[in-house]
Amino acid sequence: MSEQDKINKMGIIAEIGSAFMFLSRLPVPQRLFQNGFPSLNDSLWAFPVVGAVIGFIGAGIMMLASALHIPMGVAVVFALIAMVMTTGGLHEDGLADMADGFGSHKGAEEIARIMKDSVIGSYGTIALICLFFMRWTSISAIEISMILALLPLSMAVGRASVVLALITTPLSPHASLGKMLSKPEMPVIFVTSFILFLLASFVSFGVVLAGLLAALSGFVIIRALAIRKIGGLTGDVMGALIVTTELLFLIGVISYG
Question: CA-to-CA distance for 23 and 226, rounded, in angstroms?
């Protein structure tokens, strides 16, 4: 392997590590960044990889629980706890902040202030309760034999929604964290699509299509609300997109079945 090949390989690994640092609380060895930290935009292609790993963690816990004859409902709770701990509740916090802000019916400046407030209000609380109840119900409805394919795919779809959002949606003037990202280039879009295709290849076409259409419907609604309310994307809106599209993907899958 030439020196340039080694540098390219380390660059790819560093981009994956950067994506894990941004989207999860999983430990990432600092030696991966001995040649410097890649830009977050260069790491966008690895977002679905992070989602798939989180999904595999949840699916693995469910399969282990099933082997130990633990009731499915309890196994799903264990899986949800593990996945939220893996992400640090980052995306759920974004959903809660967006619900509080958009539910306030205030102007853009006030909505942005509410979304940056660390206190969760009534709309945010209701949104989180609904999210976890619907997650629990949806995952419980999946056959255990398919959980290893569908849960990672749903999590990957959720993270890929950020890439789609950056392609189609402007950043809000009130964005802070969101300003670390910009419209991805074609190689990022291609690799993101290829990773989703690989994960989807273990599931029938009709099931994947139903899930993607359901996820897309949620994406369109949140995107439209974000543009109307605050002029575009913020970090909180991206978090809300992730948890909403992954949930709607699962709902579309079980509805098709």
Answer: 21
